[in-house]
Amino acid sequence: MSDSKILLEVRDVAREFDVSKPWLSRVIEGQPEQILKAVDGISFTINRGETLSLVGESGCGKSTVARVICGLYKPSRGEVIFDGVDMAKAYGAELQNLRKRFQMIFQDPYASLNPRWRVGKIVAEPILSHNLIADPAALKKRVDELLTQVGLSPLDAEKFPHEFSGGQRQRISIARALSSNPEFLVCDEPTSALDVSVQAQILNLMKDLQREFGLTYLFISHNLAVVSHISTRVGVMYLGRLVEVAETKRIFQRPMHPYTQMLQSAIPDLKMTGKQRTPVAGEVPNPLDPPTGCAFHPRCPHAFERCKVERPILIEHPDGGQVACHAVEEKRISIRLAA
Amino acid sequence: MTTPLLQVKNLRIEFPTRRGTLVAVDDISFDIAPGEVLGVVGESGAGKSLTGAAVIGLLEPPGRIASGEILLNGRRIDNLPFEEMRKIRGREIGAIFQDPLTSLNPLYTVGRQITETIETHLNVSKAEARERAIKLLMETGIPAAEKRIDHYPHQFSGGMRQRVVISLALAAQPKLIIADEPTTALDVSIQAQIITLLKKLCRDHGTSIMLVTHDMGVIAETADRVAVMYAGRIAEIGPVSEVIHHPQHPYTVGLMGAIPNVGDDVERLTQIDGAMPRLTAIPSGCAFNPRCTRVSDVPGDRCTTERPSLLPAGKTQAACWLHDKNRTSAAGVSKETSHV
After folding, report:
1. Which among B241, B245, B262 has CB closest to A252?
2. CB within 8 A of B298, min separation 6: which ones?
């Protein structure tokens, strides 16, 4: 293990999907191939022990990023480097070793647990597949310990997933994810299927576990309030690209990218302070036919000629974080302080 | 005070099943004034959607209204025959549902669906109906409405579809709209657009809304008053700002603390342990008592034996024994009644 602060580095990762019609109909209708760029060249790093969140609206590619990192999709371009090792170049035992160091928690606790397996078997599966514990008695002890850690009872190991509520199932998913002693968890919308009071339980549990085991999280969510609560840093995605990455406090108090500003002002105001809103206009364009230049320019109040032709890249901002916006770079946007 | 537009009195909704009768909504009462937006908030299974469905007469069998009354403008509507109720739906009560794709018919153009509603309920010609439909679509912010009226639902995006559903709900100028999770299927930026639109239209038309949602943020932005439901009962009802800033029922207090808020620097969220009870096993007394941290603050075992009714608490009303003014004497009474 290297001593660097960075645990995971994503370098210029892109993932494309071929969504063309079948070859024959395409030839008959004379249509070209259609390529959907779900993720279009994004780079970021995650430090040990921190929580990086990716936020964005549906179709912005945040879940695809999570899947590429976990190896569920192969990236079309770019590298995912975990603890100094390029994932694409790791084979056999080395890959196996890397694999057990990260796990994933999915959105839907109803679909992500095998309904025919008992909870004990579900939780033990990663231990068995990584050959961590062979002795059945020790395995049983470990499963009991894991279930207790996530707030369930060791007796629950004998039950089936359908006997549990949504929140309890998500606890089972978390126990399963923790079973191979990972350092890094990729959480794809772990609380969006849950009610608020249950969501609070799961978020608290995740924070407790992070403190206890020094876990690093990549947290994917569309809920900005949840993100602001749990993250150290936040990355905002729009149409497959990162538009802004910064520390949580800075991004919510002083959003710089026009899209981040728009998102920030669209959050329903629970405190009813009557805050000033940036009017939200337009909708996310069709990702099959993204706008040229900056993908946000058709909705952006600050767009000008350069935005339509030249794609902005993420650059360091003197006030912290990185922003991909020509208007910010040229200091044409006044940074509005959030209430 | 003006007479309320909608009155719901002691409504009880039951589901007869083989294993016994489930009480999904248990003795709830509230009313909505003309032009008022009442938010109904609660977690899944609290009975909020069923309440909305009962008001508009779309309760799916085997669910049924077991007792209670629903009055619209003083007229009882819960026991009307099907055909009579059909005339009220759309004309006097409009509806907006969660998923705009399933609430529109995919085989008809949106124009046909809107004009159909207008022609059914209002005495106008075809041409007039079409003109009205275009005006409605324009009002809800659909660009190039004259062209879009002849498009099919699949040609619209999610946010635009929800705008069409709103035009449809407003088509016959109803006095009341039941909006069941109108923004849940939408992204935050679209959600903000739809909330602003709903608020504006209701102000312009003087329409009342019963807004059913699980999202307290949407309620805070839209509603005048809010009813917090728990296990088929109203736990607390009152003006939105009061319920949000000074919640009185322990459940509301926990719920407000459990919602993460941007800008709040809290290490841990308030945690309400446990989960909402299943309908088959609603605890006796106050339904919240197994999860409540303040049971010991109420003398005796009142919380577990006697169901609290809505009591004045601060500027709201809460169904909690903590707010019973003459606690000691009432506790004595309850002991006697529980022996009977």
Report:
1. B262
2. B321, B322, B327
